[in-house]
């Protein structure tokens, strides 16, 4: 399991937060997290095997209480009207009741039924996709899904923009098209 951390407080409320990455064991190891100097965390549960191993079930209020900002990157899964979606949402909701999550990040290319997100009991954001995906790579595609519901937000992955546009010329279009719907920025490490 991966998580994203920062050594500074997230930017002001209408600005996205920016996080580098570290291993979850650094934060959740006994006695270690109190000595680290950061106030934001993203719980990266991108692999479905993380859920199957029960990692979401192990997260406690004590693990998260010291952070000012907590997001969760949901596992890659075909989200729709199915039992798997219900089970994953229930696990996320349990964490959200323990410590309200600032946002839960989903890959929109895997959504088979957007309706399941309309009344989610937690804050929902969709992330732009890299060149390996067939959709949601452009600002226009991401905007279409984010604007579907007034409660949906966007997460920009800078490296995903780069894999689709090495000139980064499209970056301003993400800001122009999504504006204050952008709540977080990912800086991932592959090209």
Can you offer a commentary on this structure?
The chain has helices spanning 24-28, 48-52, 55-58, 61-64, 83-98, 139-146, 158-164, 171-178; strands spanning 2-6, 17-19, 21-23, 40-44, 69-73, 103-106, 124-127, 153-157, 182-186. It has 8 helices and 9 strands. Residues 1-33 have low confidence and may be disordered. The chain is of the alpha/beta class and 191 residues long. A 9-stranded mixed sheet has the order 2-9-8-7-6-5-4-1-3.
Helix and strand content put the structural class at alpha/beta
Main β-sheet, spatial strand arrangement: 2-9-8-7-6-5-4-1-3
User: What is the H/E string?
Assistant: EEEHEHHHEHEEHEHHE
- Largest β-sheet summary: 9 strands, mixed
Using DSSP, what is the number of strands? 9
Give Rg in angstroms: 16 Å
Q: Determine the number of helices (DSSP H or I, runs of at least 4 residues).
A: 8
- Estimate the mean pLDDT confidence: 80
Distance between the termini: 21 Å
What are the segments in which pLDDT stays under 50 over at least 5 consecutive residues? 1-33
Characterize the overall form.
globular
Fraction of helical residues:
25-40%
Strand content: 15-25%
Layout of SSEs?
Layout: E1 2-6, E2 17-19, E3 21-23, H1 24-28, E4 40-44, H2 48-52, H3 55-58, H4 61-64, E5 69-73, H5 83-98, E6 103-106, E7 124-127, H6 139-146, E8 153-157, H7 158-164, H8 171-178, E9 182-186
Parallel strand pairs: 2-9, 4-5, 5-6, 6-7, 7-8, 8-9
Antiparallel strand pairs: 1-3, 1-4
């Amino acid at each position: 399991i991966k998580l994203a951390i920062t050594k500074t407080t997230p930017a002001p409320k209408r600005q996205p937060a920016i996080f580098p990455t570290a291993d979850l064991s650094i934060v959740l190891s006994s006695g270690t997290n109190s000595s680290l100097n950061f106030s934001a965390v993203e719980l990266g549960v991108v692999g479905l095997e993380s859920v199957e191993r029960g990692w979401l079930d192990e997260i406690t209020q004590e693990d998260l209480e010291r952070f000012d900002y907590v997001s969760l990157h949901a596992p890659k899964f075909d989200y729709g009207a199915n039992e798997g979606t219900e089970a994953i949402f229930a696990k996320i909701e349990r964490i959200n009741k323990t410590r309200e999550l600032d946002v839960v990040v989903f890959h929109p290319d895997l959504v088979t039924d957007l309706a399941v997100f309309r009344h989610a009991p937690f804050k929902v954001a969709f992330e732009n996709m890299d060149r390996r995906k067939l959709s949601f790579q452009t600002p226009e595609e991401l905007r279409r899904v984010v604007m579907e519901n007034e409660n949906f937000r966007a997460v920009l992955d800078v490296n995903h923009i780069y894999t689709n546009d090495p000139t980064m010329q499209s970056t301003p279009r993400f800001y122009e098209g999504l504006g204050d719907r952008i709540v977080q920025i990912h800086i991932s490490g592959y090209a």
